[in-house]
Amino acid sequence: MGEEIHVDFNTGSSGGSGAGGSTGGEGGPRPRVSGGASGADFDYTQLVPSFVQTAREIVLNPVGFFRGIRRQGDFLNPLVFAIICAVISGLLAGIIGLLISLATGNGFGSAFGGLFGTLIITPIGTAIGLFIWAAIYHLLVLLIIRPSHAGYEGTFRVVAYASVLQLASWLAAIPILGILVIIAITVYGVVLSVIGIREVHATTTGRAAAVVLIPVVIFGLLALLIGVAIVAILAAAFSQSQ
Prior knowledge:
Elements (H helix, E strand, L loop, with lengths): L46 H14 L1 H7 L7 H29 L3 H37 L6 H12 L3 H4 L7 H25 L3 H37 L1
């Protein structure tokens, strides 16, 4: 998996090689990769078979998948794929919530309302989140992988297709197993993103890892600081009430 490959991209950049491996011709735009060996780029016009094939390829053969997909062409197909993954996960989590509420006799109305809201809110939230997260990654691509890269759309495709792991995120709603599922999804999500950035932008594993891990570390530290601040505030309020 650490093997470097030579892939030309239509980035508008000339000369020079990517950080890890692709070498282009001298000058002029590079030819775009229009397909690949995996043949698994999602196509919403063949919704069910294409979705199943794409999900299987990403999970079981991520190197071949990201190496073979188009770098440019459209935002719609990867966006639709990610939204489907999010909606499926939301619906399954909502169904689990309904079953739990039925078993306990509490909160059935709110659980049903949440399930209905998933169909409306999830696609919008997923689309917004994808474009923002891809922009964060691509800013680092510009800083770390420059001058040759596959462009913002290439980064967006990596983020969208890596969201396939949302198909398993509903398992986090299961008591006890939830934390293990979250850890596994987080770790493999980082692995998929690193592989995707490396293959799509034809760079090294180290630089791809930097692109993916820098935001993770920053947001993790921010979450930790916020958590510590909240605990300190609650502790201070509790001590004053004594």
